[in-house]
């Protein structure tokens, strides 16, 4: 079997197993439960088809796995190099969440320093250093720059996040920059061009909201559940 066929079979098996265990999540559905519910409710043709759902899961694997791992690994690496940052975020989770239960998604809005760490990781180590290519089908002018027709364009997201004219001490990993001062308002969802890890405009990454929640959640669980230090 080709790789694509094997991947489709894997997704089909996963969907079947997930459906069999649906009763265990009664009253607390996960994302896939909600998507399948949309398919069932849309038998009139308006809902998602099974092929739509398989395509969605495929996109999650292909577009979400590497990028998520990159952000979390870099954030952990930077905190291990800066133990004071690690201690501060652990103190925040201990204070807000406690140690009697695991951090939940609903806790994230109450953990501003954890959010700042994720923003700083995205600034210094964007998972896609160059944006997905865009294409200018016709000649145009952008901020005084002439762009010839039939030109492929890539935005250097990595360079934007390290621009010394925008960021103070851009090579330092400093989540504090997002806690106070003029950069505290910066949002990575495409509204502020100083920080566009997901791109911006009509073709912004469609998984930006889920990506931010996943990264903050996984990182929060890692710092809450374990003590970390470099060997030696």
Automatic annotation (TrEMBL):
<comment type="similarity">
    <text>Belongs to the cytochrome P450 family.</text>
</comment>
<keyword id="KW-0408">Iron</keyword>
<dbReference type="GO" id="GO:0005506">
    <property type="term" value="F:iron ion binding"/>
</dbReference>
<dbReference type="Pfam" id="PF00067">
    <property type="entry name" value="p450"/>
</dbReference>
<feature type="binding site" description="axial binding residue">
    <location>
        <position position="205"/>
    </location>
    <ligand>
        <name>heme</name>
    </ligand>
</feature>
<keyword id="KW-0349">Heme</keyword>
<keyword id="KW-0503">Monooxygenase</keyword>
<protein>
    <submittedName>
        <fullName>Flavonoid-3',5'-hydroxylase</fullName>
    </submittedName>
</protein>
<keyword id="KW-0560">Oxidoreductase</keyword>
<dbReference type="InterPro" id="IPR017972">
    <property type="entry name" value="Cyt_P450_CS"/>
</dbReference>
<dbReference type="InterPro" id="IPR036396">
    <property type="entry name" value="Cyt_P450_sf"/>
</dbReference>
<keyword id="KW-0521">NADP</keyword>
<dbReference type="GO" id="GO:0020037">
    <property type="term" value="F:heme binding"/>
</dbReference>
<dbReference type="GO" id="GO:0016705">
    <property type="term" value="F:oxidoreductase activity, acting on paired donors, with incorporation or reduction of molecular oxygen"/>
</dbReference>
<keyword id="KW-0479">Metal-binding</keyword>
<dbReference type="InterPro" id="IPR001128">
    <property type="entry name" value="Cyt_P450"/>
</dbReference>
<dbReference type="InterPro" id="IPR002401">
    <property type="entry name" value="Cyt_P450_E_grp-I"/>
</dbReference>
<dbReference type="GO" id="GO:0004497">
    <property type="term" value="F:monooxygenase activity"/>
</dbReference>
């Amino acid at each position: 079997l080709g790789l694509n066929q094997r991947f489709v079979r894997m997704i089909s098996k996963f969907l079947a197993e997930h459906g069999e265990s649906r009763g265990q999540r009664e009253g607390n559905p996960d994302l896939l439960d909600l998507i399948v519910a949309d398919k069932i409710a849309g038998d009139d043709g308006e809902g998602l088809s099974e092929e739509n759902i398989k395509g969605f899961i495929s996109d999650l694997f292909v577009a979400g796995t590497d990028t998520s791992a990159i952000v979390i690994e870099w954030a952990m690496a930077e905190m291990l190099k800066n133990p004071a940052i690690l201690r501060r975020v652990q103190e925040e989770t201990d204070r807000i969440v406690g140690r009697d239960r695991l951090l939940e998604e609903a806790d994230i809005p109450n953990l501003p320093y954890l959010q700042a760490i994720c923003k700083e990781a995205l600034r210094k180590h964007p998972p896609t250093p160059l944006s997905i290519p865009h294409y200018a089908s016709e000649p145009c002018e952008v901020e005084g720059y002439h762009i010839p027709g039939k030109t492929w364009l890539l935005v250097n997201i990595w360079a934007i996040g390290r621009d010394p004219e925008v960021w103070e001490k851009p090579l330092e990993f400093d989540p504090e920059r997002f806690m106070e001062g003029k950069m505290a308002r910066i949002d990575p969802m495409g509204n502020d061009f100083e920080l566009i890890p997901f791109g911006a405009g009509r073709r912004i990454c469609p998984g930006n909201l889920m990506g931010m929640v996943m990264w903050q959640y996984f990182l929060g669980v890692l710092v809450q559940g374990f003590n970390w230090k470099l060997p030696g």
